[in-house]
TrEMBL record:
Protein name: DUF5673 domain-containing protein
Organism of origin: Viridibacillus soli
Species lineage: Bacteria, Bacillati, Bacillota, Bacilli, Bacillales
Keywords from the named record: Membrane, Transmembrane, Transmembrane helix
Membrane-spanning segments: 12-29, 78-99, 105-121
């Protein structure tokens, strides 16, 4: 009975990890497809469309200016080939799990390695305002998927202040997206005028929010301004 129970335990662990593997591969493929769709849609972006507009958007992880989204960029190529490598490595890991007893002794360690492989495939990030929706971090969202936004100035005592000189006295724009619980869900806008253009375009789509800046924008009727 003890041996039978142990074997059942092995089968359950193998099955559980196989399910996790399938979901992980599905996530990678879907992420790649979403990025491909974003590349096509970004050609119709209302903002940014010019070099100075791209430079006005700062990616908070690397603190670098945003670049156009195309299949020729290093970030896209990283996702393209990174997806292939991640699936191969994940398949090898699954094979090791199924033919050895590794999972029985260190399930959480193996799971951690698997999730680390999956999470390594990431695009640098971006924000494109479209006529009917937006692209955020390589994925398209329709207007009705955006619950709202919050804009606040990055001044002294703000959580982002001091992390990088590009962020100091800039603006943090947080997007509240339905069914999106992962971070980061914000981007940094360099100056007040650029932020105003972005918020005006969002408001035109019926996306409203809260601003915590020193003066109101043109779409004051749709905003709640706080000092």
């Amino acid at each position: 009975m003890l041996i039978y129970g142990w074997r059942s335990y092995e089968v359950v662990l193998d099955f559980l990890f196989t399910v996790i593997f399938v979901l992980g591969v599905y996530y990678l493929i879907r992420y790649r497809l979403n990025l491909n769709k974003a590349v096509q849609l970004s050609k119709n972006a209302l903002y940014p469309s010019k070099e100075d507009e791209f430079n006005s958007i700062i990616l908070p992880v690397e603190w670098r200016e945003m670049e156009p989204l195309s299949k020729n960029t290093k970030s896209y190529q990283y996702v393209k080939w990174g997806t292939v490598v991640a699936i191969i490595l994940s398949t090898i890991l699954l094979w090791i799990v199924l033919v050895t007893d590794l999972l029985e002794y260190s399930f959480f360690s193996v799971a951690y390695i698997f999730f680390a492989i999956i999470n390594a495939v990431r695009h640098r990030g971006n924000l494109f305002i479209l006529p009917n929706g937006l692209i955020f971090n390589g994925r398209y969202y329709s207007s009705n998927q955006i619950k709202g936004y919050e804009a606040e100035k990055i001044i002294r005592w703000h959580e982002l202040y001091g992390l990088n000189s590009k962020g100091n006295n800039a603006y943090k724009l947080t997007l509240n997206i339905k069914n999106k619980r992962y971070t980061p869900n914000f981007i940094v806008i360099k100056d007040h005028d650029s932020l105003g253009q972005i918020l005006d375009l969002l408001n035109m789509q019926g996306i409203s929010g809260i601003t915590k800046v020193e003066q109101p924008f043109s779409s004051v009727g749709n905003l709640t301004n706080k000092s």
